[in-house]
Amino acid sequence: MAMAGVNYQPGTILRETIYSIRNILGDSLDDLTVERVVIGVFYTGVKLSNGQGGLCFTPIKAIPGIVCCPSSSRAMPASGELRGRKATAFLEGMFADQALRRALGIAVLNALSATCWQVRPPMNYTLQTGANALDQVVIPGEGQVVVVGALIPFIKVLKRQNCRFSVLELDPATLKKDELPFYRPPEDAQAVIPRADLLVITGTTLINDTLEGLLSFVKPGTQVVVVGSTASILPDAFFRRGVNLLGGTLVTRPDELLDVLAEAGSGYHFYGRAAEMMVLHPVNSASGI
């Protein structure tokens, strides 16, 4: 269950990460601007004035009423005016009601985290590039696995190994017919998660403000993994809340990446070309979990 002395209120992971970035970058943070923004069908990406890039899942389904120009304009009211703004101006957008502003703010946060890794290499955790966090997960043979989000490749592995698992997902339509028996609605989280021996959570829970609440339900000893491009940020706030492994994306060629996103590209199009998967884990943790 919740760790003593740790805040599980929504948004605290993001706010603690902003604080850490400010401590690492100091006054230089205020000099950074956003040079380029692309809000693609699958991912939102940014490039900062220092050449660093960041990614976030584009929460298309969270945008209500995108049927005409007046309603769509409310989703991103500053379109056409974003280039050249200070990076810090985007961070408060992570706590706004508009889903696209939240995604854009997280993409900037990811780019700032990459900046921090250049300025101050990891000390109390390791950063491994070219690795998929889900490949390092040790699935408990007789234990219960809970997956938050339709992480289809991992769900396929669980089915193939005849594991005991449940999938907490907002939209059951994202699951195939033979996966629906494992489906549980989000409101079942407090009943399902405490039974998990392995909990795998999609990073998009940062966008809808549910991650901290989910982590507060975890029983002691559960192995916790958070994965996805959205969660490509400094990991300390995750580790404080019991996360054992963090899997994200490190942007290597920001302009090429943004060109791909502008053409409705997904991870299949940019991994190995403009970005690399990465794995973060505490130095006192084994490479696998």
Automatic annotation (TrEMBL):
Pfam families: DUF364 (PF04016), DUF4213 (PF13938). Gene3D superfamilies: 3.30.390.100, 3.40.50.11590. It comes from the Bacteria. Residues 24-113 form the DUF4213 domain. Residues 132-278 form the Putative heavy-metal chelation domain. Signal peptide: none annotated. This is Fis family transcriptional regulator.
